[in-house]
Structure formats: structure tokens, C-alpha cells
Amino acid sequence: MKTKEHYLRLNENVSGIIQSGCEFKGRLSFEGVLRLGGNFEGEIFTNDILIIEDSGFVSGNILADVVIVSGKVVGDINAKNKIEIYKPAMIKGNLSAPSISMEEGVVFDGTTKMG
Predict the structure, then answer these.
(1) Terminal CA-to-CA distance of the chain, rounded, Å?
(2) What sign has the CA pseudo-torsion 9, 102, 37, 34?
(3) What contacts 61, CB < 8 A, 6 or more positions away?
(4) Is residue 62 domain-resident?
(5) Whole-angstrom Cα distance, residue 10 to residue 13?
(6) Which of 19, 20, 96, 112 has the most C-beta neighbours closer than 10 Å?
(7) Cis (ω within 30 of 0) for the bond into 88?
(8) Is residue 114 part of a domain?
(9) Which domain covers residue 79, as residue numbers?
(10) Are 84 and 98 in contact (CB under 8 A)?
(11) DSSP-derived secondary structure for the chain
(12) pLDDT tens for the 115 residues of the chain, in order
């Protein structure tokens, strides 16, 4: 497992950044890597990597290849490859992926399904 710092330094192939202080509502799809540090309400679809930073908040469902969370999510996360969750993350929703890892100190309210 790669560390949270590895993903936060990941800058190559960054398709977009939604920084702290920004808000977005709707349906979002992208290629590459999206770093989300602001607020998002809606649905997110990608075949690539979504990184939800400490300051990030998502209200809605996520479908991606890889999801890395250290912010807050209210909604279901479905990943084709893996979900990695790092403190101080707070998640209220269901997780589904072949690989799910959760750092000690994460707040999680939901169910997990691996496979």
C-alpha cells in the first residue's frame, strides 16, 4: 500500500483541482487524477484516480478506479481497484472494492464489500 503522502504528492496527470473554498454541484467525470479539497455535491465518475484531501467534502456517490480519502464523504464509494482511507477521514456510506484499507483513527459508518 502506498502512503497518503505519495498520493498527495501525485502531480503528474492531474486533470483538475477543486481547492478549499470552491464548491461544485452536479455530475463530474474526468480522466487522470482529480484532487478535491473543496465541497462537491452530486455524482463522480472516472476510470482513474480521485483524491479527496483533508479539507474535501463530497455529498453523493462515487464510482472510480482508485479512491483515496482523507476528507469527508456522505455517500457510497465504489472502486474498480481500491479504496484507501486515511485519518482524519469521516465516511458515512457503503464501500465496495476489491481492496479496501483504512488507517486507524478514521470515522466510518457504513458497510464494506470486497470482491
Answers:
(1) 17
(2) positive
(3) 43, 44, 75, 76, 77, 78, 93
(4) yes
(5) 8
(6) 96
(7) yes
(8) no
(9) 4-109
(10) no
(11) ---HHHHHH--TTEEEEE-TT-EEEEEEEESSEEEE-SEEEEEEEESSEEEE-TT-EEES-EEEEEEEESSEEES-EEEEEEEEE-TT-EEES-EEESEEEE-TT-EEES-EEE-
(12) 555 555 555 555 677 888 888 899 999 999 999 999 999 999 999 999 999 999 999 999 999 999 999 999 999 999 999 999 999 999 999 999 999 999 999 999 999 999 8
Cell numbers for 109:
459508518
As given in the structure block, the three cell numbers for residue 29 are 467525470
Closest Cα to residue 45, out of 56, 59, 55, 31? Answer: 31
Q: How many residues does the chain have?
A: 115
Cα gap 36→51, rounded to integer Å: 6
The reply to whether 59 falls in a domain is yes
